[in-house]
Amino acid sequence: MLNFLKSKKETGPFEFLIVGLGNPGKKYEFTRHNAGFMCLDVLSDNLGVKINKVKFKSAYCECKINSHRCILMEPQTYMNSSGEAVREAVDFYKIPPENVIIIFDDISLDVGKMRIRRKGSAGGHNGIKSIIAHLGTSDFPRIKLGVGAKPHPDYSLMDWVLSSFSKDDLKKLRSAVDDACNALELMLDDKYETAMSDYNS
Predict the structure, then answer these.
(1) Which of 33, 68, 134, 152 is catalytic?
(2) In the beta sheet, which residues pair with residue 60?
(3) d(CA 56, CA 120)
(4) Can you list the domains of the chain with their CATH numbers?
(5) Considering just the CA atoms, what is the radius of gyration of the chain in Å?
(6) Residues in the chain where the model's pLDDT stays below 50
(7) Predicted TM-score (pTM) of this structure
């Protein structure tokens, strides 16, 4: 379904910055907080590109989805400082906040669920808090990937989001990630209502 570009001859400004949030390093690879990274890894595989360039305190690559030139980016700053990387890329490419799409984990959604929002608060998510602080606005679209609530109210939130998915939960997450990749196409074409109607759960 996704159209991809590998040609180096493509010119013109980049329209969209697509950011998956997570923490760098093998020990965080399959943790709940890295759902955004996981989504971008699947997206890049679908597009036939590799997120292997280094700039903006991030791993990133260039691609084309439908007719849109995009940057895929995975900040390497650790979650709580994600805004530093996003701001650098936004400033460099002159991309407006409404064209910065953030993909991240959400503990208020069950694993396998996905939700699109055009804007909103941080909802307690430190990565989103950092991005809002550095961009000076919360008016940017986002795709939330459900990672499940804490198993008990007294359970440490940090321990929960840094815990690994079970095999069953990884399968459920993959389903949500596939939906996110499809919904992203619609979002880039400014078909938000259709994307939310078809994929919000």
Answers:
(1) 33
(2) 53, 73
(3) 25
(4) 16-199 (3.40.50.1470)
(5) 16
(6) 4-8
(7) 0.93
